[in-house]
Write a structure and sequence with these properties.
7% of the residues lie in helices and 31% in strands. By secondary structure, the chain is mainly beta. The protein has 2 domains: 3-71, MurE/MurF, N-terminal domain (Udp-n-acetylmuramoylalanyl-d-glutamate--2,6- Diaminopimelate Ligase, Chain: A, domain 1, 3-Layer(aba) Sandwich); 80-296, UDP N-Acetylglucosamine Acyltransferase, domain 1 (3 Solenoid).
Amino acid sequence: LSGIAGLSEAGSEDLSYLDLAHQKYLAAAAATKAGCVIMPESARSAACPAPARIFVDNPQRAVRLVLESLALRRTKPPVGVHAQASVHPEAKLGPGVSIGPFAVIERGAAVEEGTVIGAQCYIGENARVGRGSRLHPQVTVREDCMIGERCILHAGAVIGADGYGFDTDRRTGVHHKVPQLGNVVLQDDVEIGAGTTIDRGKLPRDSTTVGAGTKIDNLVQIGHNCRIGRGCLIVAQVGIAGSTTVGDFVVLGGQVGIAGHLRIGDGVQIGAQSGIMSDAEPRQILFGTPARPHREA
C-alpha cells in the first residue's frame, strides 16, 4: 500500500475505511477498488471486494493514527528566524522556534520552545505563544494575549481584536468607542479555525477565555468577556455575543447564534442554525429559533 483514500477514490495500492455513521457508505464499500479497507467489527458481513480487510472497534481512530503517521513525513518549517521576519530585540524566543518570512514579533512578546510562527503572522507586545504551538500564515495575536501550549491557529485567525463596545450619545446619536483593555487567554491544546475572531476583554483585568482542548471551526465570532469551557466543539459560523459563559464539553452546530450575558450549561448540544436567547441547563439538547428541546422542535 502506498496511500490512503476514500472508498470511491481508492485504487489497488490504497488503504481506505468504512464509517457506519452513514449507511450510504455500505454501497461504496461494496464497489470499492481499494487494496485494503479498515472496517468496524459490526460490518464483518458487509459486502467488500478488497483483497484485505482490517476489523477494528473504531475505524475513525484507526484512520487518525494512520494520518498522524503520514503527517510526520511532511516537510517541517526550518528552525530559526527568516531573514525577512521582524523580531524586536526585547522579544523572547525559545529554543527550536521557527519564525517565517514577514512575521512580526513585537517588544516583550514571548514565543516558547518548538513553536512555529508562519509567514506574515503578527505577535503583539507582551503576548505569549506557548510551547509546541503552530500558527499558520497571517494569524494575528494582539498585545497581551496568551496562547497556551500545543495550540493550533489556522490562517487568518485574529486573537484579541477590540470587543464591540460603544457608548451612544442619546442626544446626538453619535457612537463613541469604548476602549477595550483586556486580553484573550487560550488554554492548552486549543485549535482555532481559519478566519475565526476572538475579541479581547473590556476592562484591564478582563479576559476572554477558551478552555483546554476546545476545538473551534472556521469563521466563528466570540465576543468580549466570553468564557468558553473545556473540550467544547464549536462549528463554523457560530456567533457568541459578549459576556456569555459556555460550559465544558458543549457542542454548538454550524451557525448557532447565542445572545450576550447568558450561561450555557455543561454538556449542552445545540443544533445548527439555532438561536439561543436564554440560559440553557446542563446536558440539554436544543434546536430551533428560539431554541427548545430537540424532540419538541
